Amino acid sequence: MTTIDNTDRTPFDWEARFRQNDTPWERGALHPAFHDWAKAGLFKPGLRVFIPGCGRAPEPEAFARLGLEVTGLDVSESAIAWQRQRFAEAGLEGRFLVEDALAWRPHTPFDLYYEQTFLCAISPRQRETYEQAAFEQLRPGGLLLALFMQKAERGGPPYGCSLEAMTALFPATRWIWPQAEPVAWPHPSLGGKAELAAVLERRAQAGES
User: Which InterPro entries match (predicted)?
Assistant: First the structure.
């Protein structure tokens, strides 16, 4: 298991938040963007999907029921235990690890990277580390399924992920941005703050196939 480095992390004790059920970021249901992407045919059986900061989200189970190979990471042992129990009770297969998703690397890069409330939960100072990790965790041509939190107030988490900042963070030399405008989905338990749904494709670099 990778040593979890809390340097420059938010002061939140994520394990305590899950134990106390103090988790306002949880929707309690599948994200509307998940349904849109499923209808668009992005979730083909056999694809390998990575969910960093998976928490107690229902998406891992939904992916597994669609026939995808699921890997979820979180720094909270309680959240990972919850996912493992949910999968066991449902008779589903999935891999859940207590790991630092910014430091962890898979043996084989993934086809899909499902970003929900992980990027907005980390310090903005760690965003370049996030982008590098996502780039290395995805195969060339793999898809980053992004939900960028829109928030005008300073501080966090959640930290605002403006489209301008995200365009700079995920440059066109490394990521193919969709031509269509991102779809805005208001978060029901975070004051209606919008999350912008966008699918970014990881570009192949020199020497990659």
Answer: SAM-dependent_MTases_sf, TPMT
Q: Write down the pTM of the prediction.
A: 0.90
- Tens of pLDDT, residue by residue over 62-106, are 999 999 999 999 999 999 999 999 999 999 999 999 999 999 999
The closest of 156, 167, 118 to 10, measured between CA atoms, is 156
- Please state which CATH number belongs to domain 35-202: 3.40.50.150
